[in-house]
Amino acid sequence: MIYDLHSHSTASDGTLAPDELLRHAAAQGVNVLALTDHDVTAGLAEARRASAELGVTLVAGVEVSVTWYH
What we know:
This protein is of the alpha/beta class. It contains two helices and three strands, in the order βαβαβ. Strands 1-2-3 form a three-stranded parallel beta sheet, covered by helices on one side. α1 runs parallel beside α2.
């Protein structure tokens, strides 16, 4: 099994649309992909549809930005 548990799509700062990202991952042999865009979940529905079509397990995630002030 090949896992990628940190990926970004054009929903944040990635270079591929969510469905293209899933297709690229599948072509590279990835079995499980986490879509972890910055501060948004906007790409998950599109990614979910592509993952079902491609047989790649999708892990829904988000990378949350925080600022820490002392």
